[in-house]
Amino acid sequence: MRCSTVLAFAVLALSLGGLPAEAEGPRADRGPGQQAAPNPSHDRLRVFLDCHDCEFDYLRREIDFIDYVRDRTEADVHILVTAQGTGSGGLEVALKFIGLGRFNGVDDELKFATQPTSTSDERRSALARLLKLGLVRYVTSTPMAERLQVVLKDADEDGKESRTTPQNDPWNFWVFRTRANTAFEGEERSQSRNFAAAFSANRITEAWKISSSAHLRFRQNHYTLSDGGELVDKSHEDEASALVVKSLSDHWSAALHGRVGSTTFLNQDRRLRAGAGIEYSVFPYRTSATKELTAQLTLGINHFDYTETTIYDKDRETVGDARLVTAFDLTQPWGSTEITFEALAYLHDPGRHRLELDGRLDIRLFKGFSLSVEGAISRIRDQLYLPKGDATDEEILLRRRQLATDYRYEFKTGFSYTFGSIFNNIVNTRF
């Protein structure tokens, strides 16, 4: 974890009684000895914090020596915060500092990682600490630099580095998780029961990714009808899967995948799939926090045992398939976008196929105005599992089984517009 793997690290502290610090301002992309001149229009650094899951109330209390603004056009620094899951189940959080106006070209990037067992307070504390460190180079070019102090944290009691390394990891990167939950609810004429359980075991390194999981879901609903009759609706889904990925280079990887499961909704007493594939990343995998464009091709073999005879007069069958998935993710100061296209075809009959396109766009069009668009559309020709006969009204209304369809679509859009004071510093949680 950058800036945190030394024996002790610096923490920024601003206080009214602080001693003056003779510190130089940002030098990135400036001539030797040159320093960004303070802007006489405002003494405090103006920051636009671009983060979807940050606890803003906490950060505004912990970091109160800057002015938070609502729009990047009013900011001296735009801080873009992105997060990715790590192999252990934690998060790698990247903070990209983008200088604007008088700090144009003064950019930086810091990262830290959280453990899967980290509490929300530990995660937000780590974020606040790194934000303070990253802001030092900008604050030193403002009048606030006269009140800047740097405090050195004491080393661990044993004087050793606290970072866990491969040499002292007794689990050899393996991480295990298990969870279960149950719920009961009811009223005079209806009751429901739900149960779910899951288990996973993962080992992720730069060279290998091994991921396995299993889950079980059971649901039962009981209704008393107007004529005094009773209706009981039961459904379940269970699946176990495993994935092994080998990193071949900064752009290529190969994988083996297998799964076995059962689901009442898809008329499958048992379903098995084993496959292998390759993936190419246009950008190096290490840039995936801000941009990613991948193409993935897999070939597999499937075996199905059906609960009821299908519309193709099959009680069981074994078929091969080919799957192509392309994905584009981009996170930038102007917003973010995700686009995924997936094509699946069964090799014994290419007419049995599925095409899916889905995407999401969040964009800041102008000061204070943001637009979000999200949608998905599918062409569906791969429903090998449909049982013979028409679905009953009960099955349709309760969604007890998948119905025949040639397409599926979804579309959402919205906007937000904020105007008024540009400052966003005050925290008031009364009522």
Can you put this structure into words, describing what you see?
- By secondary structure, the protein is mostly beta strands.
- The protein contains three helices and 19 strands.
- The protein has helices at 56-62, 120-139, 393-398; strands spanning 10-14, 46-50, 67-68, 77-85, 91-99, 108-114, 148-152, 174-187, 190-204, 208-224, 230-247, 252-263, 268-281, 291-306, 316-332, 335-346, 349-366, 369-380, 407-417.
- The strands form three sheets. Strands 8-9-10-11-12-13-14-15-16-17-18-19 form a twelve-stranded antiparallel β-sheet, with no helix packed on it. A five-stranded mixed β-sheet has the order 3-2-4-5-6, covered by helices on one side. A two-stranded antiparallel ribbon has the order 1-7.
- It starts with 9 loop residues before the first strand and ends in a 14-residue tail after the last strand.
- Residues 1-40 and 157-165 have low confidence and may be disordered.
Annotation, overall tally of beta strands: 19
Please state the structural category: mainly beta
Question: Could you spell the SSE succession in H and E letters?
Answer: EEHEEEEHEEEEEEEEEEEEHE
| Percent range of helical residues | under 10%
Query: Percent of residues in beta strands?
Result: over 45%
Distance between the termini: 39 Å
The gross shape turns out to be globular
